[in-house]
């Protein structure tokens, strides 16, 4: 089984971070999606890494769909050159819409909001709410501390090893594309397969 990718939802920061490598990685990812004819769904901003990935994808010919809550249109400076742009009532509606539109999820470096978006869609995968790949794009070891914590959760019995293995960890555009396209969904946490027979 392979994953058909029409659009990928990208979570990333509204800041650029201190290392120029983060912005370069965002540009690389945006261009890689465009080269494959894959659209980008993201938070709609024209600042930080959000702006870098969306601008790179759009300039390379990809469809880019922005989703932004009404309260952040001015604060995050909505991108003026997207294929389509939606204003939604609040952050909950934004995350739901971005989840609906994407065939996969990729977290680039970012802050608290990026973590929150990433963990929500990864939790939804665990619960069987969706069956779409979730990846972190690891720039210069950015995600390693978080992955160490997740591995500790596995060791302590709070996260199933099979579910941890379902999380894609990549650091090049080529590896990202291969991982997303060849991904196999895990068994949901509360599936019938995990319910003991009487």
Your description of this structure?
This protein has 198 residues and is an alpha/beta fold. It has a single domain (7-182), classed as Rossmann fold (3-Layer(aba) Sandwich), CATH 3.40.50.450. The protein has helices at 20-35, 48-59, 91-101, 112-127, 144-155, 161-166, 173-182; strands spanning 7-11, 39-42, 64-69, 84-88, 105-107, 134-137, 168-170. It has a 7-stranded parallel β-sheet with strand order 4-3-2-1-5-6-7, sandwiched between helices. Helix 1 packs parallel to helix 2 (48-59). The longest helix is centred in the first third of the chain and has 16 residues, at 20-35. The protein is globular. It starts with 6 loop residues before the first strand and ends in a 16-residue tail after the last helix. The model is unreliable at 192-198 (pLDDT under 50).
| CATH class value | Alpha Beta
Distance from N terminus to C terminus (CA atoms, Å) equals 32 Å
Structural class of the helices, strands and pairings? alpha/beta
Strand order of the largest sheet: 4-3-2-1-5-6-7
- Mean pLDDT across residues: 92
CATH topology: Rossmann fold
Question: Secondary-structure blueprint of this entry?
Answer:
Layout: E1 7-11, H1 20-35, E2 39-42, H2 48-59, E3 64-69, E4 84-88, H3 91-101, E5 105-107, H4 112-127, E6 134-137, H5 144-155, H6 161-166, E7 168-170, H7 173-182
Parallel strand pairs: 1-2, 1-5, 2-3, 3-4, 5-6, 6-7
Helix pairs in contact: 1-2
């Amino acid at each position: 089984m392979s994953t058909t990718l029409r659009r990928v939802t990208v979570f990333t920061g509204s800041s650029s971070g201190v290392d120029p490598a983060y912005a370069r990685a965002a540009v690389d990812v945006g261009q890689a999606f465009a080269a494959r004819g894959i659209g980008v769904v993201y938070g709609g901003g024209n600042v930080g890494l959000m702006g870098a990935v969306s601008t790179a994808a759009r300039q390379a010919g990809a469809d880019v769909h922005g989703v932004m809550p009404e309260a952040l249109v001015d604060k995050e400076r909505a991108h003026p050159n997207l294929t389509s742009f939606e204003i939604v009532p609040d952050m909950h509606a934004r995350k739901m819409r971005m989840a609906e539109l994407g065939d996969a999820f990729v977290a680039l470096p970012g802050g608290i909001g990026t973590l929150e978006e990433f963990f929500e869609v990864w939790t939804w995968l665990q619960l069987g709410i969706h069956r779409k790949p979730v990846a972190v794009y690891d720039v210069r070891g950015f995600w390693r501390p978080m992955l160490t914590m997740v591995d500790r959760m596995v060791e302590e019995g709070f996260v199933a090893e099979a579910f941890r293995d379902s999380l894609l960890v990549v650091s090049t555009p080529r590896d990202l594309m291969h991982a997303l396209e060849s991904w196999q969904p895990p068994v949901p946490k509360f599936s019938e397969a995990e319910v003991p027979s009487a």
